Amino acid sequence: MKYGKFLILTFAVILVEFGISLLLVQKYNLLLLDSIFYVGLVFSLLFIFFSSTGGLFTNYSEMRTATSTLGFKNSYKLKRTLGRLSINCFNVGSFLFFLIGLAAAFSL
């Protein structure tokens, strides 16, 4: 993925999460900073654990396949290790949105 497209999609993820935060502020009468923090945290964890391009759950299931008897018989080679994460615009955008909320909370 080219850097320009990556930056545009990362910015789009941040804007969508900000829109969800504003929606939660209006719907549930929360503070904007609280909403930014929780939305950033939830989406960061969601994308880190369940990303189909290399989230922790995908890595764990691949390791289970590699260590099974079927993987052993077919000489299955691991593509990823357990702690390795794939860097995509969803992971980066959600984590940056979480860090923006965290930095805004401590700067006030």
TrEMBL record:
<keyword id="KW-0812">Transmembrane</keyword>
<keyword id="KW-1133">Transmembrane helix</keyword>
<feature type="transmembrane region" description="Helical">
    <location>
        <begin position="7"/>
        <end position="25"/>
    </location>
</feature>
<feature type="transmembrane region" description="Helical">
    <location>
        <begin position="37"/>
        <end position="60"/>
    </location>
</feature>
<feature type="transmembrane region" description="Helical">
    <location>
        <begin position="81"/>
        <end position="106"/>
    </location>
</feature>
<protein>
    <submittedName>
        <fullName>Uncharacterized protein</fullName>
    </submittedName>
</protein>
<keyword id="KW-0472">Membrane</keyword>
